Every structure is written in C-alpha cells, then in structure tokens.
Amino acid sequence: MILAIGLLAAVGATIASYFTAVAFRWTKPDVRWIPAFCRLEERTCATVVFTPSARVFGPPNSLLGQAFYAALLAGAAAGWLTDPRFWPLYLAASLVTVGLGAYLSYALLFVLRVPCPLCFASHGINAVICGLLLLLRPAG
C-alpha cells in the first residue's frame, strides 16, 4: 500500500506541477511536450486554472497539491505513513484534500460547467490515497 501511495503521489505531483506551471504562466496549457490527452484546452480546461476556485486558500490549489504530494512521497520513503506519530497528520491533510476535491468537483460540474479530466483525475487520486491511508492505520 505504501508503494501504491507513492506511485499515486508521483502521478498527482506531475499533474499538479503542470497546473502550477500553467497558473504561473511558465508554460502554455497546450504545449507539444504534454501528451494530447493531458493537455488543457485553451478555451475550457485552461480557464479553470485562472478562476477563484483555483485559489481557495490564496496560492494556486495545484501548488498546495505539490506540497501535499511531496509530503506523501517523503512519508512513503521515510516510513512515516505508518508511524502513529505522523499518520494522523497525513490522514487529516488527506481528508481536507478530499473535501476540497468534492467542492471543486461541484464547482467544475455545476458552476463553471467545465469537465476537466485532469482535475477529476487528481480528485480521484486524492480519494484513493485517503482510502489507502485509512487502511494503513497504525495499530494501537
């Protein structure tokens, strides 16, 4: 399960890094080196990055996502994900992430009306990570 969390965190970090690069205009949303099925379409998905929903806590959500995934990767490598001292922190961060994902999914579908596949992929990854963290609950 720790390996699965690490792999999911690596995929999530890649998606979050792409969104962050677009949000800070370091790259265009439709650059050629991004596979076509992952590219943010200029008129739909890319606009999501520049809405108020994309900055719920101030900085871009994707930047916070990068920090979350980095913490998960560090935790997987160091064994902190099953450490009773750190597991509650990881779970709390994960629960906040899933809650935020539910809100953002609602906003995508019903407010912005933009079916962003990468956004939904990230939210799905976060939900699976949360489930895996629940399964990793330390004994005692």
Please describe what this structure looks like.
This protein is about 65% helix and about 0% strand. The two termini are about 20 Å apart. Helix 1 (about 1-25) packs antiparallel against helix 5 (about 115-135), helix 3 (about 60-80) packs antiparallel against helix 4 (about 85-110) and helix 4 (about 85-110) packs antiparallel against helix 5 (about 115-135). The protein is an all-alpha fold. It has a single domain (about 1-135), classed as VKOR domain (de novo design (two linked rop proteins), Up-down Bundle), CATH 1.20.1440. It contains 5 helices and no strands. The mean pLDDT is about 90.
Keyword list:
64% helix; 5 helices; de novo design (two linked rop proteins); mainly alpha; globular; 140 residues
CATH fold-level topology: de novo design (two linked rop proteins)
Please outline the major beta sheet.
none
Structural class per helix/strand content? mainly alpha
**Fourth-tier CATH superfamily name:** VKOR domain
User: How far apart, in Å, are the first and last alpha carbons?
Assistant: 19 Å
List the helices and strands and how they pair.
Elements lengths: L1 H22 L21 H4 L12 H18 L8 H26 L4 H19 L5
Helix pairs in contact: 1-3, 1-5, 3-4, 4-5
Summarize it.
With 140 residues, the protein is mainly alpha-helical. It contains five helices and no strands.
